[in-house]
Design goal:
With 81 residues, the protein is an alpha+beta fold. It has one domain (3-76): ACT-like. Chain A, domain 2 (Alpha-Beta Plaits, 2-Layer Sandwich). Helices cover 27% and strands 48% of the residues. It has a four-stranded antiparallel sheet with strand order 2-3-1-4, with helices on one face.
């Protein structure tokens, strides 16, 4: 299957879910090239962006796993290499 490079944006509306998000990201560490997080402490939310490289099945599996968590939204944008 063809590899793609792209981004996954994660909007965390409940920062108490950070442990679950970190576990999911660790499970998919083989496709993650970079991670950047921006916490908004005064609003109890955070934005995390990931740069990923892998096949669409693997990237979509991570996006789906994150999106199924309550209080978490995730979207992926991919391109062909």
């Amino acid at each position: 299957m063809e590899k793609r490079i792209g981004t996954i944006t994660i909007l965390l509306q409940d920062r108490s879910r950070s442990t679950e998000i970190n576990a999911a990201i660790s499970d998919f560490s083989d496709i993650i090239l970079c991670r950047q997080g921006l916490p908004f402490h005064d609003r109890n939310i955070a934005v995390i962006s990931l740069i990923v490289e892998g096949n669409t099945d693997r990237i979509n599996a991570l996006t789906g796993k994150l999106g199924r968590l309550e209080g978490v939204e995730s979207k992926a944008v991919l391109t062909r290499m």
